[in-house]
Specification:
Blueprint (H helix, E strand, L loop, with lengths): L2 H45 L7 H27 L9 E4 L2 E4 L16 H21 L7 H14 L12 H30 L2
Length: 202
């Protein structure tokens, strides 16, 4: 894994932990609004006559789709980032050589066995970063090309989906699900209110 991929593996778990509670609150709010809309839609479909009686329930099901997708993506993201270490490896210098956290002198990661190891490693990092930048500049996707290009660049920098399992899912779908969930809260509440008024006006 490159330095950029290692950086992503350290940052992403922290971001997931920070967004865990707001994401849960958003999903609960959306579930409450859409669930109320769906229950009232079922009552409307059972008590009213005609195909229009099924419109509230159909709209509630449509609003529930992004909420379900976002909940699945959130659960999968938490599962894939749970095993990643969000803390950086601390390295200290001792008289006998560089020592990593929990390592032995002279045998730790990052120790330079020869004079040309560091330049070749630095060149490999630069090549990987340059390849990721070039990949990010290729915006060939029809929908949300910037998001798709950024995901491809991140996967390339991390060394593939094995090193970055949090980038396996299409981020464009996650983005649309997030926007749809945000919209489902006010739309679901509004639909529940309108459906309740229709039921009470009979």
């Amino acid at each position: 894994m490159t330095a950029l991929g290692d950086f992503l593996a350290q940052v992403v778990p922290g971001l997931v932990r920070v967004a865990r509670r707001p994401g849960l609150l958003l999903l609960r709010a959306a579930a409450l609004a859409v669930g109320s809309f769906a229950v009232l839609g079922i009552v409307r479909a059972w008590t009213a006559i005609g195909w229009t009686a099924w419109v509230p329930l159909a709209l509630a099901a449509l609003l529930a789709l992004p909420v379900v997708v976002l909940a699945q993506r959130r659960a999968r993201l938490q599962a894939t980032t749970e095993g990643l270490d969000p803390h950086r490896t601390i390295e200290v210098t001792s008289p006998s050589g560089r020592v990593g956290a929990g390592g032995d002198p002279g045998t730790t990661r990052g120790a330079r066995p020869s004079g040309d190891a560091r330049p070749s490693s630095a060149q490999a990092e630069l090549d990987s970063l340059d390849a990721a930048v070039r990949e990010g500049a290729l915006r060939t996707a029809r929908y949300f090309p910037r998001i798709e290009a950024a995901q491809r660049a991140g996967l390339l920098a991390a060394g593939g989906p094995v090193n970055a399992p949090y980038l396996r899912d299409d981020l464009r779908v996650t983005f649309v699900a997030l926007v749809g969930t945000l919209a489902a809260v006010p739309l679901g509440a509004l639909g529940a209110i309108v459906t309740a008024v229709l039921l009470l006006s009979r």
